[in-house]
């Protein structure tokens, strides 16, 4: 089931949209904290966002830019401010489509279906994993933290993926080595230590000191 996040401050419109999407078999959620849209986006991990332009605190263009820093999921702007300038702004900010209010709900659903089909028919779902404000994009092999974006090596990505998938739990060194080298053959234990030490230095460079913690004699962990 695809999850759709509705970023709309008009309760009537957001309720109608949510009900319509649920009728079509989608899971939908409405933003409740307009000052922390990114936090709710990360927690909900949707496959598509419907975004209004005029919002409390920050406008939709701001949030579109912030989402694009960590994800390539489809974004549809739905706004009564539908002049050419806003349309151009929306596309330039990374939006995939624009719907003018008042809109026909059938048109909205048709556009959503088309975008989801184009985005996910030939690829796996693009997910993100998060801890302490650091966001790992599984589709891009990147880590984002406070506007810093780190392109990860294959080993760095695998280390962080298994740790975040087991967030707040200790992952054994053996499990990490099997993830890295996909083999039960003997791998020098020091090789993992070297990889983790080098990766920690890169994480520190973007402000993530002690992000990966050692549990002596067992393995590694990350968590809030």
UniProtKB/TrEMBL annotation:
It holds the Pfam family Response_reg. It comes from the Bacteria. SUPFAM superfamilies: C-terminal effector domain of the bipartite response regulators, CheY-like. Residues 126-224 form the OmpR/PhoB-type domain. One of its GO terms (biological process) is regulation of DNA-templated transcription. InterPro entries: CheY-like_superfamily, OmpR/PhoB-type_DNA-bd, Sig_transdc_resp-reg_C-effctor, Sig_transdc_resp-reg_receiver, WalR-like, WH-like_DNA-bd_sf. The modification 4-aspartylphosphate is found at residue 52. GO terms for cellular component: cytosol; protein-DNA complex. Keywords: DNA-binding, Phosphoprotein, Transcription, Transcription regulation. Residues 3-116 form the Response regulatory domain. PROSITE patterns: OMPR_PHOB, RESPONSE_REGULATORY. Residues 126-224 bind DNA. One of its GO terms (molecular function) is phosphorelay response regulator activity. May play the central regulatory role in sporulation. It may be an element of the effector pathway responsible for the activation of sporulation genes in response to nutritional stress. Spo0A may act in concert with spo0H (a sigma factor) to control the expression of some genes that are critical to the sporulation process. PANTHER family: REGULATOR OF RPOS, STAGE 0 SPORULATION PROTEIN A HOMOLOG. This is Stage 0 sporulation protein A homolog. The lineage of its organism: Bacteria, Bacillati, Bacillota, Clostridia, Eubacteriales.
């Amino acid at each position: 089931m695809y999850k759709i996040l509705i970023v709309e401050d008009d309760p009537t419109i957001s309720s109608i949209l949510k009900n319509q999407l649920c009728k079509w078999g989608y899971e939908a959620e409405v933003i409740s904290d307009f000052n922390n849209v990114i936090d709710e986006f990360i927690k909900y991990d949707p496959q598509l966002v419907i975004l209004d332009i005029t919002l409390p605190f920050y406008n939709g263009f701001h949030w579109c830019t912030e989402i694009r820093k960590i994800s390539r999921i489809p974004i549809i702007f739905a706004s009564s401010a539908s002049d050419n300038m806003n349309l151009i702004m929306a596309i330039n900010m990374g939006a995939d489509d624009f719907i003018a209010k008042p809109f026909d709900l059938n048109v909205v659903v048709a556009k959503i279906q088309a975008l989801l089909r184009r985005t996910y028919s030939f690829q796996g779902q693009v997910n993100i994993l998060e801890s302490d404000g650091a966001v790992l994009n599984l589709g891009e092999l990147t880590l984002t933290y406070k506007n810093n974006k780190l392109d990860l090596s294959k080993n760095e990505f695998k280390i962080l993926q298994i740790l975040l998938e087991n967030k707040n739990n200790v992952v054994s060194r053996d499990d990490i080595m099997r993830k890295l080298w996909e083999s039960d053959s003997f791998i020098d234990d020091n090789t993992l230590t070297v990889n983790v030490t080098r990766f920690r230095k890169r994480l520190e460079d973007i402000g993530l000191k002690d992000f990966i913690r050692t549990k002596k004699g067992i393995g590694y962990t990350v968590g809030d």
